[in-house]
Amino acid sequence: MRTIVPSAEQKQVALILHALGHPLRVAMVAYILEHPGCICNDLVLRFERAQATISQHLALLREAQIVIATHEGHTTSYCVDGQTLEYLRTALGDLAPHDLP
User: Fold this and answer.
1) Partners of 38 in beta bridges
2) Beta-bridge mates of residue 75
3) Which domain holds residue 36?
């Protein structure tokens, strides 16, 4: 029997899905899509969570390359990496073809 080892693409898809596996992070991505260039404090105020909590969620989203951070002096602004979302859309499409029973 041959051992199956996840491919690099499968690992990347799993990382992205893990990052999107929390409702707050999904909502944060939606907010950032609507408000590109927002800062952490915008998210803290909108989601009524501690700054440390929002920062931890942003770190996970950055690690999965869903969110891009841009540093301007002491301010960091966030936008969504559309390429990552398109990559996920394609990968999920490959995983679940349209001709399933």
Assistant:
1) 78
2) 72
3) 9-95
